[in-house]
């Protein structure tokens, strides 16, 4: 455990010096405040507090931004060590490869959590100032934070996997962007195309729910939207959330980080310095 | 007492290159062993195998009684890679603290370790601002963590200035005296000559010589050189009396004789020509000569 913490402390310090902490936090705060500002504008909706509206828009934002930040932080993790030539020495130390990965994960998760708490927190404060009744929506903000952390953990693990597989930072960066496009953009487009051509047939009722749960970004969206009873507002694919139990999307969100870490470990074990 | 390192018939192939072929060696506690060889001879490859960083194809390697790279052996072995690299954003002190923590040692020793390699003044600066020799010293400092039983040092003095080299070998002497085994590679033959107990010469992956310097000298059977300085005005007479000698640029006479005949030749010269000489130097073959001899034996 102390070896994991030592690795995490070193990684955190490096991220601080490389301004990663500042960049991630600034991005989250900026986007959250923009969304909070639009959410706070009078919408004509009666009985919906500004924070609930903001949480729904923050969810849509997080689906794109959290995986992106996670991949940007993680693609260099192994490939960078290989390129700098620091990996051979590190691997002669009495520390296992899993411990090294866990240390990096811990540091990157801490940075991500910091950025998320500050970003969402800023949006929450803004909503509260606009309408103190927002306080009732606090649980949904809290839910958004911890699910975002899990979503980030999944993509951090996937990032480490790509980093181990490519062994060159430039290659890993390319793979990471490809992965982001695939999971966050193309996957949903594919599902949308499927739903449209199927017209409510067997594919929509049987394959779609499974496909949505299989993608951590979709599971994240499902969980937050259905938990917030905001399905109607989201429409489209979100409508499928009716059919899927809350525990299933929660399970997907919890299992994905574990699976991604396992993948990363398997890939890292194959790296010869 | 068991050997710290035991390698027998080690063979390693890269796709087309045979990097190591049937290499055997034993390293006892307190022994300082130098690994010599041309570029690409297989020195770094052998060290990486000892550390368990790369797999090998044949033979046996036992490091501190365990398999190379096993948790038990990693806890007892320190390594200095060929081009020691560190994260440029960390300071020397932070980097050493990290390594101390990974070895389960108190991080408070970092300052003292950096002091020992002469980096105390720069401990709080980022490694990105260090010179090559300063980075090399960070690498040396991390090998001193936690009393390792075996130190594997790949070209440890590359990039160090002459005074630091001396300090470095003094440091090694101290470690060896405490019972640590040291395996180091080097291209600087003169320093290795004076500061190690055993010498190993690799040539194209094969071990062409191993032993102490005197035993290698004997095995190589290279001639000893006698340098004769003539007394005032006796240069001509002396040259005539020593027909096999060649004149050097500074007016001395140079005579090569086989190792076995050295004493006889010396006795003859001193008794017969004593008064005509101002001085006489006996120069044994240097490690450089011996190294060249062994490296060329296999026809390369
Ligand atoms: N990863 C690799 N893939 C293929 N061949 C390699 C690899 N690493 C080393 N070699 C080859 O193995 C041989 C031995 O290399 P090694 O690095 O051990 O030499 P060395 O004795 O350390 O040389 P130097 O004095 O230049 O450091 C060389 O022919 C080299 O080209
Ligand atoms: Mg080498």
UniProtKB/TrEMBL annotation, chain A:
Protein name per the record = Cu-processing system permease protein
State the Gene Ontology terms under molecular function.
ABC-type transporter activity
**TM annotation in the entry:** 20-41, 53-75, 105-129, 141-162, 174-196, 250-268
Q: Name one GO cellular component term.
A: plasma membrane
- Keywords assigned by UniProt? Membrane, Transmembrane, Transmembrane helix
Say yes or no: keyword Transmembrane helix present.
yes
Lineage, top-rank taxon, reads: Bacteria
Q: Which organism is this entry from? A: Paracoccus alkenifer
UniProtKB/TrEMBL annotation, chain B:
- SMART domains under this entry? AAA (SM00382)
Which CDD domains does UniProt cross-reference here? ABC_DR_subfamily_A
Quote the InterPro entries the UniProt record gives: AAA+_ATPase, ABC_transporter-like_ATP-bd, ABC_transporter-like_CS, ABC_Transporter_VariousFunc, P-loop_NTPase
GO MF annotation list: ATP binding; ATP hydrolysis activity
Identification of the protein by name: Cu-processing system ATP-binding protein
Q: Where is the ABC transporter domain?
A: 5-229
Source lineage: Bacteria, Pseudomonadati, Pseudomonadota, Alphaproteobacteria, Rhodobacterales
Q: Which SUPFAM superfamilies does the protein's record reference?
A: P-loop containing nucleoside triphosphate hydrolases
Q: Which UniProt keywords apply?
A: ATP-binding, Nucleotide-binding, Transport
């Amino acid at each position: 455990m102390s070896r994991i913490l030592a690795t995490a402390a070193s990684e955190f310090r490096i991220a601080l010096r490389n301004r990663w902490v500042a960049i991630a936090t600034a991005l989250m705060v900026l986007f959250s405040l923009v969304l909070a500002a639009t959410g706070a504008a009078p919408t004509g909706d009666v009985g919906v507090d500004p924070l609930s509206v903001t949480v729904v828009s923050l969810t849509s934002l997080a689906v794109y931004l959290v995986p992106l930040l996670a991949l940007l932080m993680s693609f260099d993790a192994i490939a960078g060590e290989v390129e700098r030539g620091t990996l051979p020495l590190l691997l002669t130390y009495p520390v296992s490869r899993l411990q090294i990965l866990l240390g990096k994960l811990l540091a990157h998760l801490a940075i991500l959590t910091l950025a998320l708490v500050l970003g969402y927190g800023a949006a929450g404060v803004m909503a509260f100032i606009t309408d103190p009744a927002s306080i009732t929506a606090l649980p949904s903000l809290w839910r958004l934070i911890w699910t975002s952390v899990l979503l980030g953990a999944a993509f951090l693990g996937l990032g480490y996997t790509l980093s181990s597989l490519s062994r060159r930072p430039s290659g890993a960066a390319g793979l990471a962007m490809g992965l982001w496009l695939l999971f966050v953009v193309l996957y949903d487009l594919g599902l949308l195309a499927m739903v449209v051509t199927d017209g409510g047939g067997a594919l929509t009722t049987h394959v779609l729910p499974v496909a949505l749960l299989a993608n951590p970004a979709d599971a994240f969206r499902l969980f937050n939207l259905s938990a917030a009873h905001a399905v109607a507002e989201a429409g489209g694919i979100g409508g499928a959330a009716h059919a899927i139990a809350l525990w299933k999307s929660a399970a997907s969100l919890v299992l994905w980080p574990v699976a991604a870490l396992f993948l990363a470990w398997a890939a890292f074990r194959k790296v010869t310095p | 007492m068991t050997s710290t390192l035991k390698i027998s018939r080690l063979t390693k192939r890269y796709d087309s290159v045979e990097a190591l072929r049937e290499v055997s060696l034993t390293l006892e506690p307190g022994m300082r062993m130098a690994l010599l060889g041309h570029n690409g001879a297989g020195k770094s490859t052998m060290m990486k195998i000892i550390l368990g960083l790369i797999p090998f194809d044949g033979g046996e390697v036992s490091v501190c009684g365990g398999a190379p790279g096993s948790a038990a052996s990693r806890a007892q072995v320190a390594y200095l890679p060929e081009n020691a690299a560190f994260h440029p954003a960390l300071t020397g002190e932070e980097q050493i603290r990290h390594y101390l923590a990974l070895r389960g040692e108190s991080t408070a020793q970092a300052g003292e370790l950096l002091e020992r390699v002469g980096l105390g003044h720069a401990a709080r600066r980022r490694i990105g601002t260090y010179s090559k020799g300063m980075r090399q010293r960070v690498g040396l400092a991390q090998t001193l963590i936690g009393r390792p039983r075996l130190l594997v040092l790949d070209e440890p003095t590359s990039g160090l200035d002459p005074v630091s080299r001396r300090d470095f070998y003094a440091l090694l002497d101290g470690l060896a005296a405490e019972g640590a085994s040291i395996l180091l590679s080097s291209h600087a033959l003169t320093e290795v000559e004076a500061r190690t107990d055993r010498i190993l010469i690799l040539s194209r992956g094969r071990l062409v010589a191993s032993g102490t310097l005197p035993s290698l000298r004997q095995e190589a059977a290279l001639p000893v050189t006698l340098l004769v300085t003539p007394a005032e005005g006796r240069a001509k007479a002396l040259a005539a009396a020593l027909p096999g000698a060649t004149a050097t640029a500074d007016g001395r006479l140079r005579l090569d004789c086989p190792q076995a005949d050295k004493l006889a030749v010396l006795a003859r010269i001193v008794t017969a020509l004593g008064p005509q000489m101002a001085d006489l130097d006996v120069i044994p073959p240097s490690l450089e000569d011996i190294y060249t001899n062994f490296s060329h034996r296999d026809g390369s």
